[in-house]
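call fold(seq) -> C-alpha cells
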Amino acid sequence: MQVIETLAEGLKREIKVVIPAKDMEQRMNERLADVKDKVRINGFRPGKVPVSHVKKMYGKSIMAELVNEIIRDQPSAILSERGEKSATQPEIVMTEDEKEAEKILSAEADLEFTLSYEIIPAIELKSVDGITVTREVVDVSEEEITEQIEKIAESARTYEAKKGKAADGDRVTMDYLGKVDGEAFDGGKDEDAELVIGSNRFIPGFEEQLVGLKAGDEKVITVNFPADYPAANLAGKEATFDITVKEVAAPAATEINDELATKLGVESVEKLKEIVRGQIESQYGNVTRQKVKRQILDQLDALYKFESPSKLVDAEFENIWRQINTDLAQSGKTFADEDTTEEAAREEYRALAERRVRLGLVLSEIGEKAGIEVTEEEMQRSLFAQLQQFPGQEKQILDFFRNTPGASASLRAPIFEEKVIDKLLAEVSVTDKKVSKEELLADDAEEGDKPAKKAAPKKKAAAKAEDAAEGEEAAPKKKAAPKKKAAEGDAE
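ret:
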C-alpha cells in the first residue's frame, strides 16, 4: 500500500492511497480459501468446491467487502501512523466511474482513494501561574431566607372571605365572559375562576380593574391583547369581559413556623430554613461559577493564539447563527432593530465561533494531558437529568441517544469541560470577594462572550454560544387571556 501526501497547506491535508491490484487479489484469495470450506453449493460436497468456482460466484462481493473494510479502517490507521488527529471525519473520495469500479472489483485495477481532512494543531500547554480570578461570594441573610420562604408559602396560603372591596393581594372568585367585537371567543369564558390580584396571571390591564369591586358586583372591563399574543385571532385586539364577582377573600397572615413547614412537607421550620438556604446558595454558586469560568476562558484566550480547523469553526458558527436567527424570529426583530447589520453580525459571531473552537481544543488538550475521564456513572446521571427535563418523552430521548452516532458526545463534553475547569481552579490564583447579591447578579454585558463591542443581535444568544449560560431563564410565557387554562387552549 502506498500512502502519498499530496497537500500540506496550513491545517489542510490530502493523502492519496494506492493498493495494487495484486495485493487486493491476494486478500480476496485468502478470503475465498476460508469461504470455500463453508459454502454449500448444489453438486459439490462440503469443502470440495473448487476455489475457481467460488471466485466466479462470490469474488466480486468479497472484493466489495474488502474495499468497504479498507475505506472504513485505513483512514484512522494512516492518521495514527502519521501522528495526526483529524478535526472531523476525513472526506474519502474514490472513483465513481462504473467501468473503473468494475475493474477494481475484478482485481484488474489498483484501488485508489484520497483522504481530505484538517488536522488538530499541536498545542503546547503553557503555565497557568499567571492566571488570576476573582470569585464573588454572597452571604445569604436571614432576611433573604425569610423572603424566599414567604414566596414559597404562597402555594400554601389560605384566604378568608371579606365584605369589603377587593384590594391588591386579595383573591377574587368570579364568572367572566370575554368578547371581541361583541362576539364571545373560544377560551374566554369561565365560572368560579379564582384570581389573586397582582399575580399577573391574566393579560395586562385585567387585574387592575378588579380593584375596588366587592362580592355581588358586576362590571364590564376592557383590555387589549398583546400584539405578540400566541392566539392569532386575539393578538392586538381590544376585548371586553363581563365580570360577576362572587367572593372577595383577603390573604391570611403567613407565619413562618413549624405548622407552615409541615404544610410544605418539611418536618420543622429549622429544616425548612436549611433547605431554602441551600437552594439560594446553590443559585448564587452557579452564577459565581459561570463568572469564574468566564475569567479563566478569557485569560486562556489571551494565552493561546493558533489557527483553528475551519470545518469546526464553520459548524460552530452555524449553530450560533441558527440560534441568533431563531431568537430574532421569536422576538419579531431584525438586525436593524439591534443596531447592526447581518454582515456585521456574521463577522462578530464568526469570531465568537473561532474563539469557542480554539478554547475547546485547549481545554481538551489540558484534560487529555491530565488524564481526565468521564465515567459511565457521570454519563448516566447526565442522561437522567435530560430525561427529567422532558417528562413523557423518555423513550424518544433514550432512542435518540442509542441510535444517533455521536449523540453521547453532547452528554460527555460539558462534563469533561467542567472537570477541566475544576482542575484549573485548583491551580490558578483565586481571590474570594464578598459582594451583594445585586453585584453578583448585575449584567456584566457578557464581555467575555462578545468578539466585538456591539452585542448584535442578542447578548443572551452570545452567552449561550460561549458557555451554554447555565441558569439562563427562558423567555416568560405569554400572559393568559384571561385565565391560563382557557387561553392556552387557543394558543396551542
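The two ends are 62 Å apart (CA to CA).
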